[in-house]
Amino acid sequence: MSKALETVPVAATSHQKAHPEIQKKPLSWSNIALGAAIQTFEVSTLGQPFEVVKTHMAANRADSIATSLKKTYARGGIAGFYQGLIPWAWIEASTKGGVLLFTSSEVDYRARVAGFSSSWSGLFGGIAGGVAQAYTTMGFCTFMKTVEVTRHKSADASVSTWRIAYDVFQREGIRGLNRGVSAVALRQMTNWGSRFGISRVTESIFRGKDTNRKLTNMERLASSAIGGALACWNQPLEVIRVEMQSQTKAADRPENLNLFSTARYIYQKNGLMGFYRGVTPRIGLSVYLTICMVFGGDSVKAYFNEKPKQSGASAHA
């Protein structure tokens, strides 16, 4: 009888090792600030040039990458590649990065507690984070960034973006300033769902049978890059978004565009390949952004989470 009782703790211990308790990633205002800082760094370095060229190609679907680069440079030299950075891209980056990290971490944890794998949890977290971004911070800022890149095509290119925003608000109200937000939401949802999900799947492949093995920096970097590149399968949504927010005044362009009428217009003008204009610079942008947010975010969060433990250990030493 006593021997039977003695075996119970041993079985429980082995079960705990096989199924470690799910730990919630600690989130605080510092994590939200971290997301904002990483995203602002990303857009202020290579992010905005990729964004400008990608937007130009999506709006000017007959232009090649070389032509887009020449036209962008002609608009303002090196500064032309940073159109819309201040204040729109900074406002967007300083808010959407924090929203992404906060929402995705919370949903990722809830999904793992519910019994989903790390890959599925990453997918759900990314989808939720992308939707939260679109409807809380990105509508107006994305619209204004697109105005900066495409307003040279409007009837009066000398009109400031502030004036255009005011005119749109006078005509259409808040809804007009959030034109294309449905396309933004679909893009962000599929973007971050794919990025986080594919990155986690790639990490699992690198780990192999040893599911608890800590990945090397190169493996984590590669996982983030692969996730970013493969997430660009949804480029048609990005082209639709740009067209909806573009300041183009073509005679055959419908006035009140929605997702379906915009898709029809693009197909009639440029065929199926028109939906994939700008995909190359977008792959570059996605890889860079995903490395910053997934690899960089995880690394910096891990550093700050370990710091208090090290301080505590040294205090007790």
Q: What spatial form do the alpha-carbon principal axes imply?
A: globular
Proportion of strand residues: under 5%
- For this entry, what is the oligomeric state of its chains? single chain
Radius of gyration: 23 Å
Distance between the termini: 43 Å
Find the count of extended strands (DSSP E, 2+ residues).
0
Structure characterization notes:
By secondary structure, the chain is mostly helical. It has eleven helices and no strands. It has helices spanning 2-18, 29-59, 65-76, 85-113, 118-150, 161-177, 181-207, 217-230, 235-245, 259-270, 279-316. The radius of gyration is 23 Å and the shape is globular. The two termini are 43 Å apart.
Notable traits:
single chain; 317 residues; mainly alpha; 11 helices; 76% helix; globular; disordered N terminus
